[in-house]
């Protein structure tokens, strides 16, 4: 590349995200995407390593250039090819039933591939060797995790107390699942988790309904194989798409234990609670807080969400 100035000259902020660090640019004779690393400059080497690791297995862009060390004035960055397609979030509302089913089948395949990329322990990746640093989640399970974020989530005391009852029941169920002889997936099994696996971060060819990209890997880590499924189903109310996802995951990732929908929603609670603490920052975080409030009111993990599982 000709340097930071030549890349930044044509930068146009991308819509759809909330970080304000991603831009479309023209570079090396082609359209590209420029991602700056202002909030977490050490993450750049992890993202480059991840995209190179999974390319050919998952639809991620080629890395065209990267600056792994920088400053506020000259920040680290990754320059990637711009993948074809449109954002899946904008595509789905007008997609026909057969198109949504086709999308769901492909999403299930991507989830199965992610679940098949194992690690020896869970945690956030620290560098380009992709060795996870174990999470500090405390010893009190989801109840303790919620209490750490309760002030930021700001539910009223009555709802907060009701929510801890729901979370305690989930904690108890997880313990029962771990000692159940029928569970095929031991708790020490970890895999690659995208951690933001939802339509906002997926691209699709609108003519063929073929998934063309899975982007934004900034939260990827080693974790539960149910986490990405839970993220995808968090706000989903489409039984056609979700049913296709779950059907393919069952066939292509048979090591995952039933019931898939419940386990996915349980695994998603860790991220949901953390996200709800940022409700003032963006609409997705506000929706996460609303979902926790609905769990408190209903006394159920489903929180009024439809049963999307055809099994």
Automatic annotation (TrEMBL):
Superkingdom of the source species: Bacteria
Domain Aminoglycoside phosphotransferase: 13-241
SUPFAM superfamilies attached to this UniProt entry: Protein kinase-like (PK-like)
Gene3D superfamilies in alphabetical order: 3.90.1200.10
Pfam families from the UniProt entry: APH
Protein name per the record: Phosphotransferase family protein
